[in-house]
C-alpha cells in the first residue's frame, strides 16, 4: 500500500526544453533552489543556461566561445576552454565555471558576465606579492639524529623563492584516454575562498581569495585526497591519507601530527566548528580546534 501511495504522489511538474544546448552533461541547483544551471561540455559548443524556478523560464545563457575574458598579467591571457563542471558560491551570488584547461571563471549572478578568472599556472611566479607558498619539509630538529624522516616528523614552512615549478604527478599507465580534471573544488562557508586540486598536480592545493585575487599554495609530499572546510570559520583541513592533517587559515598553514598508527582518510566537522571527527580505516578520533583567527 505504501509503495502504491508513493508512486501516485509523483507528478510531472514541468518539462524543460533545452534547445539551445547540444547535449546535457550536468545540472546543479543554486543554494536557495531558485535557479537551475544546466550545461553542455561539448568542446565544439560549450554552453550553460540558467533556468529560474520562480519565473519559470530561462534567464540567461553563457558560452566560453562568445564571451571575451579580461586578460590580467598573472593569467597570461589564458581563456576558458569548454565547461568541465560548475560550483555555486554558498550565497548563490557567484557561479564558478571550471574549464578543461585549468581555468576557472567566476560569473556574477545578476549580469552573468565574468568577474574574475583563475589560471592554475604550473609555475608560481612573482606577479602577486600577496601570494604565499607553504611547502612540506622534514622537521630537522626532530630528525637530526635519524637517517630518515617519518610522516610524523614533517612541517609546513612558508617559502619565498620564485619562480617555483609545481610538481606533476605520475600518470596511470592504464589510463590513456581520459582528460586530466580538477578533482577537488570547494568554496569556504563564507564564500571568500575557493580551494582546488587538479589531477595533474596531486600534491598541490590552490586556495584562491576571490575578493583580493591572491593565492595560497600548499605543496605537500603525499597526494591530496580530501579537503574539508569548517562550517563556521574560513578554516580548511587537508587530508592526504597519512598520520597527520594539514590546517589552513588566512593567518597561515601548519601540519597537525596525530596518532602514529592512524592514517586519516576522511573528516567531519561539528556544526559549531570547534571540533572535527577524523576517520581512519578502522579508527576515529575527535580533534578540538583552536580559535586562531
Automatic annotation (TrEMBL):
<dbReference type="InterPro" id="IPR015943">
    <property type="entry name" value="WD40/YVTN_repeat-like_dom_sf"/>
</dbReference>
<dbReference type="GO" id="GO:0005815">
    <property type="term" value="C:microtubule organizing center"/>
</dbReference>
<protein>
    <submittedName>
        <fullName>WD repeat-containing protein 8</fullName>
    </submittedName>
</protein>
<dbReference type="InterPro" id="IPR052778">
    <property type="entry name" value="Centrosome-WD_assoc"/>
</dbReference>
<dbReference type="InterPro" id="IPR036322">
    <property type="entry name" value="WD40_repeat_dom_sf"/>
</dbReference>
<dbReference type="GO" id="GO:1990811">
    <property type="term" value="C:MWP complex"/>
</dbReference>
